Amino acid sequence: MSELEIQVAAGVDTAGGAKTAGRGRVTAVEVIAGLLAALLIIAAIAPRLLAPGDPLAIDPRAAFGAPSWTHWFGTDESGRDIYTRVVDGAHDSLLIGLTATVIGLGLGAILGVIAGTLGAAVDFTVNRFLEVLFAFPGLLLALLFILVFGPGPGSAIVAVGLSTAPGYARIIRAQLIRVRSSAFVEAATVQGLSRRRILTRHILPNTLAPLLVLGTLGVGQAIVWAAALSYLGLGAQPPAAEWGAMLSAGRTYITSAWWMSFFPGLFIVLTAVCATALGRSIERRMRHA
Amino acid sequence: MTPADQLTTGRPRPEVALTVQNLRVGFGAPSAEDAVRGVSFEVRAGECLAIVGESGSGKSVTARSILGLAGAGARVRADELTLAGESVLGLTEPAWRRRRGRDVGLVLQDALASLDPLRPIHREIGDSLRLHTRLDATERSRRVLEVLDAVGLPDPHLYAGRRSGELSGGQRQRALIAAALVLDPPLLVADEPTTALDVTVQAQVLTLLQRVRSEGTAIVLISHDLAVVSRIADRIVVMHDGRIVETGTTAEVLGNGRHSETRRMLAAVPVDKPRGARLAPATETRPAGPALVADRPAVPADPRNRATPAVPLVAPAAPPATPGAGLALEAVGLSKTFRGPHGTIHQAVDNVSFRLQRGSTLGIVGESGSGKTTTARLALALTAADAGEVRLLNEPWSTLPERDRRARRPLMGAVYQDVLASFDPRLNVREILQQAVTGPASAGRARGRRSSAARRGEAARVGSLLDEVGLASGLLERRPADLSGGQRQRVGIARALASRPQVLICDEPVSALDVSVQAQVLDLLDELQRELSLSLLFISHDLGVIQHVSDEVAVMHDGRIVETGTAAEVFTAPAHPYTRALLAAVPRLI
Amino acid sequence: MADQLTRARLGGLGRRLAGAVFVLWAVATVTFFAVRMIPGDPAEAILGGPGSQTSPEALAAVRAEYGLDQPLLLQYLHQLGRLATGDLGQSYALNMDVGPLVVSQLGGTLVLALLSLTVAWLIALLLATWSTGRGRLARQIGSGLEIVAAALPHFWLATTLIVVFSIWWGVLPPISTADARGLVLPVVTLAIPLAGFLGQVMRESLTAALESPFVLSARARGESERGVLWRHALRHAALPAIGLSGWAFGSLISGAVVVETIFARPGLGRTLLNAVTVRDVPVVIGVVMIVALVYILMTVLTDLASRLADPRPTTSGTGAGA
């Protein structure tokens, strides 16, 4: 099991609950999540639009300032504005999360499709391989990877991608097997379609259709894990405005300046919740499309 | 007096078990139209009232309102609703709870899901006693065994500790009835109590209900099946669109039904209707059909001799064949085993042989687990047989490697029970039919290289297929999920016909449909068979359907064919005891 | 029939055991070869890293001591042999045997994980039962709380709890002391996100159970809403969450890395993080092996528990590891 598999399984209920909400109607949750996602993307692409200040501007007189009208989220030990830095950090954090997700999803899709299409022996082997990976629960696989390749943002990305891949692989394999044994694939066989054509026209499109949902649901988890590695000093390093690194830097001053770690973390949570909500909503819409 | 003799406890019964006056039930917004609109009836002690209607007629909502279980969002109003002599209008939930189980019991359709799969049945049955009586555990368990014995569950001591999943369909349904009867309520509401059951088990359950009624319990029986209710109902109420359209004694309604809905339902029952006789009004078979269809006589005097249309809709791939002109499909000594969950071996099909004559219909009938679906899959060469061979048009079929068989696959089409699942959910009707028309022919060709003329030809063919099955071309852009059950099955038939097959394998093609829709689809298959000289292998659990569609019949039981013959022979003079038992159990309109 | 069933069950148990041994072997192999891919000379690492000016003689001595001068395959087989006898080797950094070190740290982490699992179960159950059958608003609130809880990172939740409960209110210690009060914040930190995941699964099955025909049957018997919940629906809701407990345990151990570090609590997680930071390879391998072992044991236990709670024959495994 993986976090993602639970989210996917639980999504079924949301779809059931949405029966009353109607197909095309946009729910309040979707509006809020959509707005939030738009703001996060703007922050990642053009941070100056939301926070015109300089994230690196030092102002020793304003050090350790509590949240106020001039500094919404307070200031850090060098007097840098936390709000500006949080907005600025969206770029790194989202990029790390997205890249890790793409790696995990890509690896997972390859493994899952290989297991589902190349016969029982390959399926067996891939399954045992996944079982072994699952025996390194959560961050353990990422930690092992970092032990071998050393800490750093690049390592953290690959490490998180690698530790999420088994979950993706199992979901995709299960989906592929479900599609492969479905009645419509049998109907295509009866029509006399070749195996290759059934694979490319029916099995793969239906297997890979949920990738968007999986990716959206997974981005939140990837950002949380990457931030955890940064927090532990194994990913992005403190001068960077990446959220996990900012939290890690704020750890030292936790007794006097809680805002230094609170606001970067809050944005990690918001991003993750936003990703889950959007993933669920896409899933529901695809189901009813 | 032994417990098995008596279901009841001798509790005094009110003369009128239930009175319903002008019942209205609505859901959702107050402005929305009610699901039940002004229903009135009365049930007396020892009487069985059947409420009959097709899906969406409001019969189940009516049944649930009697128990105050129409649902959280339901608005239930009535002029009178009297249960066991007391008005239950506007009762609070706790007051309802005191009456449910004690004054009225409920039996649902699917006993597997209607008994908690995690709890042994004696607990499920004992719950009513725990809730409504002060009996202690020993007395409760004695009464549970007593009632299990009374409903005819063999060896109650052994079975009481089992869960619903460990019982057979019939045992389960008996346990469910026992749970509803344990407090001996004056009224039993049974909502489709036999629908998912095999015909022999269905007969047993109906006999049990008959006994319950004869001992003074009033029964409200909800069903879509007129033939089933005719066996035990004293009076019948026909519902349509939330209203009662006809009411009377069973004999009156069956023999002299006046309302069009009643007559439609009666006409649609296929049992005892000769081969080729229409089941649905002619206009319904191909509602959107072309002029050609309308030109034909609506009800041909003798459908066997009816002339084929002057201009055939589709030129058959082979010259029209007449029955007896050779074998369309032949199976010789087919066997297939499956491995069970604990290393057990299950012989699904055992030495099955049959012959399907060209242009005729072979019906294979059997109960669940008889191996008929495996036989269909073997005929389609979707699974390899352990032994035996299937030959198609006197040439090898099942023995070919799939690669070689693919070229011959267009000769054989298939129509499925769960037709929705047989469509790729990403495709709309046009794409489904286009793919079927193109078929394997273009397998080697790149998609974009087909000439525009070929593509126009395909589009025309898709259009003519829709006409053939009586669907409007407006449905082309819709997805099957958005169509009705009958429309879906028509699309399924159109897809099967796309490659101009000579043999059609139909596996329970009408089992999921309402009886009037079933009638239309059966009529359609019959017409298509004659127009296109199709040979049909028709598989069904429903003896009525099989009798209606088949020229020859094979009866399957436990993986073997126990009897074959012409439809007339098998249905009028069955030789095998199993066939006789099966036929005796078939509910017929009296 | 009964005999056949017993044999089938025994066969299943045998397969499980074989699977567990296979996974342990594979974990050992993966870690062994992964660690060999670390750039640099392990002997140097043992003597304090590449920067420390060590004599070639000292390096040679260390290589001989740790068997690093032998061919890789031989080293691998030695390693397997040692692992099979429970010998996890010597720590590079701490100059002590890894086996006793890891075992001494295991207890604290197990206590933390088991307590967190229990608390998470309670929170998830309370939230799911409170918010089902109370209308749409309650359901959406419950579902929203679960999604937020599942998205909470341990490190942020821990620091926020410390700020509120230790620094502002001063009611609970910010570092994990030996007494029960010191356990509260770490346990809550681990339990809340997990409760979010468990709750999502429970709600799904609870909703399905409440809409099932057997619940309608129970209501038709006169069963109250509370009776329906306790006698029928909750058992069905608990089943998938029980099946998840193996996974949950693994994720708790992973979370312990962060939580033990923040609350300065001795345990496997902190040991692992320190070892990764200073590249103490034998300790990393030791911790990974122990975690894999505990994880596999937990999935087996979970499976047994699932089977006890749901005696229906399953068509497939729960899919949770070996």
Automatic annotation (TrEMBL), chain A:
SUPFAM superfamilies: MetI-like (SSF161098). GO terms for cellular component: plasma membrane. It comes from the Bacteria. InterPro entries: BP-dependent_transpt_permease, MetI-like, MetI-like_sf. The keyword Cell membrane applies. Residues 90-279 form the ABC transmembrane type-1 domain. Pfam families: BPD_transp_1. Keywords: Cell membrane, Membrane, Transmembrane, Transmembrane helix, Transport. Its main location: membrane. It is a multi-pass membrane protein. The chain crosses the membrane at residues 26-46, 94-122, 129-149, 155-172, 203-228, 257-278. CDD domains: TM_PBP2. The keyword Cytoplasm does not apply. It is found in: Cell membrane. One of its GO terms (biological process) is transmembrane transport. Belongs to the binding-protein-dependent transport system permease family. This is Peptide ABC transporter permease. The lineage of its organism: Bacteria, Bacillati, Actinomycetota, Actinomycetes, Micrococcales.
Automatic annotation (TrEMBL), chain B:
InterPro entries: AAA+_ATPase, ABC_transp_ATP-bind, ABC_transporter-like_ATP-bd, ABC_transporter-like_CS, Oligopep_ABC_C, P-loop_NTPase. It comes from the Bacteria. Keywords: ATP-binding, Nucleotide-binding, Transport. SUPFAM superfamilies: P-loop containing nucleoside triphosphate hydrolases. Residues 18-266, 329-583 form the ABC transporter domain. GO terms for molecular function: ATP binding; ATP hydrolysis activity. One of its GO terms (biological process) is peptide transport. Belongs to the ABC transporter superfamily. This is ABC transporter ATP-binding protein. It comes from Cryobacterium arcticum. The lineage of its organism: Bacteria, Bacillati, Actinomycetota, Actinomycetes, Micrococcales.
